[in-house]
Amino acid sequence: MRYALLVCHDEDARISAAERSRRAAGLASVPARLSDDAFGGGLRLQPASTAATVRCWDGGDIIVKPGPVTSAREQLAACFVVECADSAEAVELATAIPAAWYGSVEVRPVETEPARPAAIIPQVPGQIVAPAAVS
What we know:
The protein is 21% helix and 29% strand. The chain has helices spanning 17-28, 30-33, 87-94, 99-102, and strands spanning 2-9, 39-44, 52-56, 62-66, 75-83, 104-109. The strands form two sheets. A four-stranded antiparallel sheet has the order 2-5-1-6. The chain has a two-stranded antiparallel ribbon with strand order 3-4.
C-alpha cells in the first residue's frame, strides 16, 4: 500500500547554522534509506509564507488570501510517497526522517486511484457523491 509521509516543522524556529546543515543532510539522505521499490517520489516545499489560499463559493465568489490555509506553529515542508506492506512499516520509515525528531511526520494512506482536481470531493460517511464530469 502507498503512504504519504507529510513532513512538518516550525519554519520560524531559531536554529544554528550547524544544526540547519545537519537537518538538511539528514533530509537529503532519506531517499537513500529507502529501497528503489519503496520510494515513490517526493517534493520539498518552499516556505509557507510563499503560499496562497484559494476559496470558491457558489455564485462565482473567489477569495485568494496570501499565506497557508492555517496558521499553525508547524507548517508542511515536504511530502514523500512510499510503498509499504502496512502502516507499521510506514511509521518505521517516518522515524528515519530527521524532522520526526524536531518537528513531525504525518503518515497517511494514499488513495488507490490517481488524484484529479475535479475528483477531490470531501467524503461524508454514508453519503455518496458523484464527481462532476470532466471533459
